[in-house]
């Protein structure tokens, strides 16, 4: 067990996990802001906007198609698998992920444990394709698009089912997070691989922690949440999470 941690006590049953791109980077998926985040010398934060899509939908679709292909080739890592193990021991458990990939869900499926209901993808799902005009959407795991697809209902351009930088969060997903808090604060909050640059991520993590909860940050770099952490681990998630969860479950 990593130094400074303590076993999961009988009362430590309510857990929130906040994950960012750092947890998936160890599966070979580049982060937006880290080394390798740029695509063809283009800033991803300028591609992941509705304005960029309206300006050049073909370019944006090509970027997302390449990201989808990379995610399909990637596999869940030890950190994803450790979270599945931890979830099986908690009374109330929620993974609030900013990642649009499906690696955490695949880790659950491979372990035959969770059904996905304990995961909130607050920034959407890259494998969902939705209409830019009407409400039509579909999930496409293995299908590749040649050019920008058209909506079968209204003929408008289809787009990835993700939340872009110039868009509001999905209110239904926000409600799922807020409903989790209705049962009270958490005994444990794990913040893994996120730069915590969004205020709502910081606010939710602190709301879950309350005044007495433990907030453990796993990130190689300091973040806005570091000052509130009760414990920090400056190491890659895939390296530290299996040891951390093993210590919790002793």
Describe what this molecule looks like in 3D.
Helices cover 34% and strands 18% of the residues. The chain is α/β, with parallel strands linked by helices and 250 residues long. It has a 6-stranded parallel sheet with strand order 3-2-1-7-8-9, sandwiched between helices. Strand 2, helix 6 and strand 3 form a beta-alpha-beta unit. Helix 5 packs parallel to helix 9. The longest helix is centred in the first third of the chain and has 17 residues. The radius of gyration is 18 Å and the shape is globular. The protein starts with 13 loop residues before the first strand and ends with a helix. The mean pLDDT is 90.
Largest sheet: 6 strands, parallel
Task: Give the termini distance in whole angstroms.
Answer: 9 Å
Radius of gyration: 18 Å
Strand order of the largest sheet: 3-2-1-7-8-9
Query: Into which percent range does the helicity of residues fall?
Result: 25-40%
Oligomer: single chain
Shape: globular
- Structure annotation, total helices: 9
Strand tally, please?
Answer: 9
Indicate the proportion of strand residues.
15-25%
Low-confidence stretches: none
Element pattern in H and E? EHHHHHEHEEEEHEHEEH
Mean pLDDT score: 90
Structural class: alpha/beta
Secondary structure topology:
Layout: E1 14-19, H1 21-25, H2 44-47, H3 50-55, H4 57-73, H5 78-87, E2 92-97, H6 103-111, E3 119-121, E4 124-131, E5 137-139, E6 158-162, H7 171-181, E7 188-192, H8 199-209, E8 214-218, E9 231-233, H9 237-248
Parallel strand pairs: 1-2, 1-7, 2-3, 7-8, 8-9
Antiparallel strand pairs: 4-5, 4-6
Helix pairs in contact: 5-6, 5-9
